[in-house]
Amino acid sequence: MSRFKSIAFCTTAVIGVLLALIGLFFVIEQRRAQAETAAVLSAFFSQVVLNDKSDAERTLTIVVMRNPECRMCSVEGGEFDKAFWFGHSLKSRASLLSEPWFTQSSRATRTSFFVNGVFSTDVSADLILPKGSRAVFVKASDLGTKQGDFEARFPNNFGYFVVSRIGLNLNKTEALLYMDHFCGGLCGGGGYFLMRKVEGVWHVVDQHYTWMS
């Protein structure tokens, strides 16, 4: 009996250590990605949304959701969620990253992207954007429920964006992220973006849209 207790204790201890190591890995990976998030998102919004242009007459507002979620997964009985990274199950996400488009990125980048996307955690960063523009990170409740609330609170906006946590390769020169853009009514789109750092500056090198309206 004592032998079985000893085996059970050792097994429990090993499982506990493994879970602790996995948890530590998740924490370290999220902190590693968070350190580069501001630079990656600043480059993304500057290049893709603002086209590196400023507007001296009015301040343009980039509205970003703090908590990534599938905003459209209740549509059409849940079938529509297949187009959204946030709507996939973890198993589906893992298999998705082996598809041809994703193999343009390194295995480390895809692993980091998957790990950082396991939990819908808070996404926020101090972005550096072209003059005449600003970024605001908000919660779903901040969008307002009445028509005109959103425009009144965030004038000169582009709608709002739902952005995933980023994935990085080991030396932080390649990044992968997913973005949904909702611009009012049936206007919107979403997809994956592959970015690389060249001479210290992040650039979007490829994109893979999964839905557009």
Task: Describe this entry's structure for a reader.
- The chain is of the alpha/beta class and 213 residues long.
- The protein has one domain.
- 33% of the residues lie in helices and 25% in strands.
- The chain has 4 helices and 7 strands.
- Strands 1, 2, 3, 4, 5, 6 and 7 form a 7-stranded mixed β-sheet that branches.
- A hairpin with a 5-residue loop joins strand 5 and strand 6.
- It is globular.
- The protein starts with a helix and ends with a strand.
- The mean pLDDT is 83.
Summarize the structure.
The protein has 213 residues and is α/β, with parallel strands linked by helices. It has helices spanning 2-49, 90-96, 107-116, 149-153; strands at residues 60-65, 133-138, 157-163, 167-168, 174-182, 188-198, 201-212.
How many structural units, i.e. domains? 1
Which percent bin holds the helix content? 25-40%
Radius of gyration: 20 Å
Oligomer: single chain
Task: Count the DSSP helices.
Answer: 4
Following the backbone from N to C, one meets helices and strands in this order, namely HEHHEHEEEEE
Low-confidence stretches: none
Q: Quick one: biggest sheet?
A: 7 strands, mixed
Please tell me what the overall shape is: globular
End-to-end separation in angstroms reads 65 Å
